[in-house]
Amino acid sequence: MASIKPISSELYDTDYYAWVQDQVRALREHRTEEVDWENLAEEIDDLGKSVRWSVESHLETLVEHLLKLAYAREIVRTRNARLWEGTVRLARYKIRRKLAQNPSLRSILAELFADAYEAGQIMASAKMRLLENSIPDTPPWTLEQVMDDNFVPKPAS
User: Model-level pTM greater than 0.85?
Assistant: First the structure.
C-alpha cells in the first residue's frame, strides 16, 4: 500500500488543484494531521464571501436596470425597455435562488441592497451618460419593491 505523502502548504501556492485534491482526500479519510488548516480555513471563508458577492452582484445588476427603466431618456427607454425588463427578471430569479440556497444571507440583504444601490447608480449613470446627480443618492424604492416581480418603476421624466 502506497503511503500518502505529507501535505505541504507550499503546494497551495504551486499547484492549487493538486492542493485541493489532497485536502479533500485528507478530510474524507479523517487524516487531520495532513490538513493544511490555515489555507483551508481561508478557502472556506472565501467560499462564503463568493456567495455573498454573487448576491450583491445580482442586486447591482437589478438596481442598474431598474434605474435605467426609471431615468433613461424616453427614446432610449422605449428602445431598450424589453431587454432591461428581461435583465430585471433574471436578476431577481438569481437572487431568490441564491437566497433559497443560503437563507442566512436574508439577514444582510438590506445591507447588500444599500451597497448595490450605489454601484447600480454609478453603472446606470455611466451607461446612459447621465449626470450622477440626475439619479437620487438614496434608493427611490424599498427592497421589497425591488424584489417584487410585479414592480417596474415608472419613468421619472
Answer: no
